[in-house]
Amino acid sequence: MDYEIIDQIGKGSYGVIYKVKIRSQIQVLKEISLKNLSLKQQNEAYREAQIMHTLNHPNIVSYYNSQLRKDKLNIFMEYCEDDLHNYIYRNPSPAENQVWQWTIQLLEGLEYLHSQKIVHRDIKPNNILMKSNILKISDLGESKSLISTQQLSTTKVGTPLYLAPELIRNRPYDNKIDIWALGCVIYFVCQGDPPFGGSNIISLGYNIVNKSPKPINSKYSRRLQSLIFKLLNKVPEFRPTAAQALQQIRDDNDMKSRHQFQKIFSVHSQQDISRGDDLKEQNKTVQMIQSRRLERIIQQQKDAQLRLCEADKFSKIILLNRIIKHQSEHYVQ
After folding, report:
1. Do 55 and 160 belong to one domain?
2. Catalytic residue, candidates 2, 71, 83, 122
3. Residue at 222 is within a domain
């Protein structure tokens, strides 16, 4: 496969990561040098390529191809502009709506991995890439396939700051270690620091097992804080699965939407009642005005009849006087 190296964008103990161009498409090349790796490390490198080949999810970095060239394993993957770690250091304390969107994306990615019986084992901000504000889980080199969802492992892996308590205690573990690590990641997104620290590995391990994280920035809702601390439950059995956490978020959103609808409906109902009352008052006013007009018309008619009666009486008196005068004149003659 022919490709053009554009830039070196990363380097690790296993190899180098390049931004490359293949035809007109920008991709990432993870070049793993096998020469100085132990057999176990070589198997881990092959396993990453094998695992990525089987996965297809919008919140998992896409795998394109792999090839073995002499003593190097080349893995070609989807190119992403940034990673969550660098982004948060440049843009601390993102808006809560954004945190919820990212949380849902990562939970959906983990739910998919776990449904494929894969435990990532190294979830951390550096291994979460960003592409057009969509988060994608990457670096599956530490991933482990479990034959069944009940199978437990005892191999200690992961980045110390994001290790679950059961790993510190050297206890068997399952996919709940990814849930713990996700809780650490979301905590980091809100706070800019991991939930636990220490001056050395021993103190860090002690704090993870025995201490509680510092309170989360009060700008974030109790609902978001509650979810983070559920993910950080020190007892793995009490941590939700990715599917359970997603369902809880959806249920809460549905309840919130219903509450908002009821509130809006109540306001509109009150407005309708108010408009109805206003309409009744307007009708009463119109009826009163019409009644008064009718009374005036009736009174005017009565006055007119009275005047006619009085005029008729006056006319009769004048006529009677004229008759009397006429008869008097006739009598004199």
Report:
1. no
2. 122
3. yes
